[in-house]
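Tokens in:
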């Protein structure tokens, strides 16, 4: 008689380069084992997503764009370059939080979760770039 319990999918290997361990994903997509550490990087909780469904390891709203910047971008999303510049300036004021997130990539994949409908232009994509740059900077300094 077959075992009624479905097999647990194997955990995929962690990429060798920490910069390759940073991923970005819309929070509305299903959680996967390959997501590694799931971190919501939005200031507001996403509509219609339960805490169970989100399967977060951490909600890091402190790293999200300020309310003022979020509202400004929402009102005029066509100015992507200005948003990216302003958000990078905000991130530069939080080096300890950036280091914490970079440290998570030492052993695992880190998936930055966001709620925006735009999967290419959102705060998580900017944050992922900044974290990758931090990893490269640390590598060169070390």
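Residues out:
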């Amino acid at each position: 008689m077959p075992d009624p319990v479905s097999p647990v999918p194997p955990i995929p290997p962690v990429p060798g380069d920490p910069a390759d361990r940073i991923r970005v994903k819309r929070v509305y997509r299903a959680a996967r084992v390959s997501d590694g550490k799931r971190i919501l990087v939005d200031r507001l909780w996403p509509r219609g997503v339960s805490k169970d469904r989100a399967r977060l390891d951490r909600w890091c709203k402190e790293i999200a764009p300020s309310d003022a910047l979020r509202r400004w971008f929402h009102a005029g999303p066509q100015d992507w370059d200005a948003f990216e510049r302003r958000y990078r300036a905000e991130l530069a004021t939080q080096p300890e939080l950036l280091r914490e997130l970079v440290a998570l990539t030492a052993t695992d994949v880190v998936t930055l979760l966001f709620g925006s409908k735009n999967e290419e232009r959102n705060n998580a994509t900017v944050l992922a770039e900044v974290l990758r740059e931090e990893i490269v900077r640390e590598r060169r300094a070390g």
